[in-house]
Amino acid sequence: MKLIHVKENTYCIDTGMSYIPLYKLNEKDIILLDTGTIDEKELLEKVFEQNNFNVKGIICSHGHPDHVGNNQYFKEKYKCPIAMPAFEAQIFSSAMNMKVFYGNITLTDIEKYYGYLIFETDECILVNQDKINFCGAEFKITHTPGHSASHICITTPDDVCYLADAIIGYELMETAKIPFDFALLEGIKSREKLRSLTCSKYIATHKGIYDNIDKLITDNIEFYKYRAEKICELITEKMTVDEIMQHALKAFAIKTGSVYKFEIIHRMLNAFIDYLYETGKLRISIEDGLLKYERIEESFN
Fold this sequence. Notes:
Blueprint: E1 2-7, E2 10-14, E3 19-24, E4 29-33, H1 41-50, E5 54-59, H2 65-68, H3 71-78, E6 82-85, H4 86-91, H5 95-98, H6 107-113, E7 123-125, E8 131-134, E9 137-143, E10 152-155, E11 160-164, H7 170-175, H8 184-193, E12 201-204, E13 208-210, H9 214-234, H10 241-251, H11 259-278, E14 282-287, E15 290-295, H12 297-300
Parallel strand pairs: 4-5, 5-6, 6-7, 11-12
Antiparallel strand pairs: 1-2, 2-3, 3-4, 8-9, 9-10, 10-11, 12-13, 14-15
Helix pairs in contact: 8-9, 9-11, 10-11
């Protein structure tokens, strides 16, 4: 765990698993960009204590547990406001709304195991909003839906763009078995959109700091498309999503030891199946009351 100086007043905390950026308003007050997982809470607090930091505000890129895991805790501890995309702010405002995110988990279990993720957002970032004046500093907003429904990238006043999960680093590309996107086709469009940025530095949560991301964008898109092709190869006959899931778990040696992990992998796989259907690689039919997917050979070849 260490604090990395990126440029001028922009830093990031290396938690080991991820980079969590922060912007220094002055020697004491900071704006945190995402809050990491609940398991990273003590690491973050140690950095804050060692540097005498006070969290003045939090801007979130999107509402996944590894990005909002400590929102409520830091909000209560530092009495700081939270800003994030409006749609995902609504999802994490209650356990009932979180059922949209955790579709296969009961409301009772959401309240029991994931209640810590519920928080109130003070300033919602709208879909047509390209900047936010927050705690006395102006941040640029680039809307990059795909990884999540309303994912954003955040550029600090130092011209450092926090890519969050719109782009993943090479280390994760080497180890990810099924990378996550909520809507893969939109995710690819958003990655292409990032080519128009001309920032001086870029930070990816998982995990890297870059001067230029053009090749990284290309490699990300090719990686997602390659994984889609591999999933398509698993569909050798008319198959349900659950049957495709069985084949994928075996082919990629993925273990699902909990309902939560099963649900996450299921959503990951669904994004690729949707992409393959949307791009003309699969057709859908209904047989014996079951929805089945079939590979279109001419498109695959």
